[in-house]
Amino acid sequence: MESPMRYIFTPSNIALAVCVALSHTAIAQEDVPKVEEVVVWGTKVSSNTESIFAEDMSVKQADHISDLLREVPGVDVGGTHSVNQRISIRGLGETDLDIRLDGASQHANMFHHIGNLTLNPDILKSADIQVGNNSVTQNGLGGSVYFETKDARDLLRYDESFGARIYGGYASNDSQQGSLTLYGLLSENIDAMLYGHYVTRDDFEDGNGNKAFGTKGDVYNILSKIGYELGEIHRFEFSYDLYRDSGDYNPRPDMSGTANNGLSQDRLIPTDYSRDTVTLSYQLRADNHKGDVTLYNTETEIVRDETVMAGAWPGNRVSENSAKNQNVGLNIKFESAMSLFGIANQIVYGADYMDKTSSSYYGATQFMEESAISTALFAENKFIVSDLFNLSAGLRFEDYKRKAEVGTNKYDDVTWSLAAELNPVDGLVFFASTRTLFKGPELLETFIAYQDVAMLQDGLKAETGRNTQGGVRYEQRFDRHTFGMNFTLFQTDIDNYIAEAYNRTTGRYDIYNLADVEIEGFETSISYGFDAFASKISYSKSDTTNKETGGPVVGGNGRSIDMGDNIALTLNYQSDALDSIFGWNSIWVKEEDNVLDGQPAKQSYNVHNVYAQWVPQSIDGLSITIGIDNIFDEYYASHASRSGIAPRGGIVMDDYEPGRNYKISAAYQF
Q1: Are the beta carbons of 574 and 550 closer than 8 angstroms?
Q2: Where are the beta strands (DSSP E) in 202-319?
Q3: How far is the C-alpha of 560 from the C-alpha of 274, rounded, in Å?
Q4: Which residue, 42, 46, 206, 66, is CA-closest to 122?
Q5: Is 193 helix (H, G, I), strand (E, B) or coil?
Q6: Do the Cβ atoms of 158 and 653 come closer than 8 Å?
Q7: Omega cis (within 30) before 174
Q8: How far apart are CA 67 and CA 54, in angstroms?
Q9: Phi, psi of 210, rounded to the nearest 5 degrees
Q10: Nearest-CA neighbor of 221 among 202, 241, 240?
Q11: 529-557, pLDDT tens digit by residue?
Q12: Predicted model pTM
């Protein structure tokens, strides 16, 4: 699984590239006049629980989704391995969220030891997060995360017609990455971009100095886009996104190296994890009408050569095994502004269709093929009664058909939403919303050979319920000061929560209604800025209760889905004199003791990062970024990651995060 590109991205070669870029740009830009800096790289992360402005996250030098999203109130990202990125919102995981990449659904249920997301943070233009499902335009129980990648017109600066960007980065614990981007206008109406990114990793060390096991591998991502603009309001775009992750990986990438060694000694499984996404999209951007239409096909596949597990695995798995998830879908969403009976209206309406097919092979023999087809129609209208008050109402019809190996089941429902906002003074908004929920039973995870004995409980009901929340937000500028505040109080009730468990007595998987579940808590954030200084602090809390037992709710990994209270602090200062940005980020997470009897609490932890970015005005297009993650070498596992004690052998399964990590990267755009 070694790649020749691994030897390209070495510290010495990256340092050489940085020096070449510096010397080249110093000469090329010698006579260029000083101009206002325009940020064209980095990711804008925004959510409904933030107090005010989104941040440019390029300073994070991210190579894992956790680097971008862990500061967002109500959001956590589990997993340390490249094949294990798991987003959690208020304790609800990926299969309960609406996650999309350029409009293409990333919904999957691949394997309990890996994540379902194969995303490259470097090329992301934005991440728009809705914490909690508050609108009928979404289909996730717990909320949504919409990722958007960059295109050529995002990258073109000033009066450029063509451009390029080279990037290289080194991290001491223990990875290197680099990218090359080419983009430009092929004509006045046609633009194109070709992007290639590569990350090579070795086994990192955790905060105790323990070397990880089976994390060494290579990831590359190639994204091509071509866009056609018809006039000023219509855009058509075709994109192909290829993602490959390969290495000799540990059998259980959601656990620490110590746990893997204890469970299966030093065995490593040659692994390939891949995604191919093809999208054809249309955008409308008129004064009173906006819309997006996306037709997509996403295929995610994992291939593991498990012949190395002979003697440890069941005989029917000692072969090269694969599992594939394919999503074919069409998403249509339009927004129109109009006046009816003297009242201004903003109507959002559309449809969402997805055919998800999962299949698996053990050796050369296909084991199963299942599908789940979901169709939805929705409309939501905001009545702008006055400058002080608006009211929203929406309806959504959903039809869900589950075609599994053991039978076909169909579920449908009509859900609704109501919301109101009161704006008594400039910048101050009181808000409240309620939204009913619906979700049919998932297909069993793809990379597991039990679909033929995965039985739905007789009379199994779809999950339903309601998310209700309310609060206040305030944004204001006072001379050289800016201030923002957001407070959200919420309660999510999920009726007939669906769980699954392997029954050793019957030799089958049981899929059943566990109980009614309640999730309640709050998110709050405050931001303050003065001239070039910006700060933000947030606090989030959620408590999950099984209404039948009064105890915790267990997730798919056998662990409580509860997360400890989270406090996040970010400080930034931009120095015009030094052409630099300096920043500090801290996260404190309290202990979570709402766990099953006999299991340890999820331990508290605090992590601190520092970073700086130099963007010299005299060398147009150059940026150099340095940072230290986990400055104090904290030994910890995220509460969204695997943790706890294995039922057999008493092995600690905690997926410990990397310890102190020094980062440096350079980019030159020309």
Answers
A1: no
A2: 217-230, 234-249, 269-285, 289-305
A3: 30
A4: 42
A5: strand
A6: no
A7: yes
A8: 15
A9: -80, 130
A10: 241
A11: 999 999 999 999 999 999 999 999 998 78
A12: 0.92
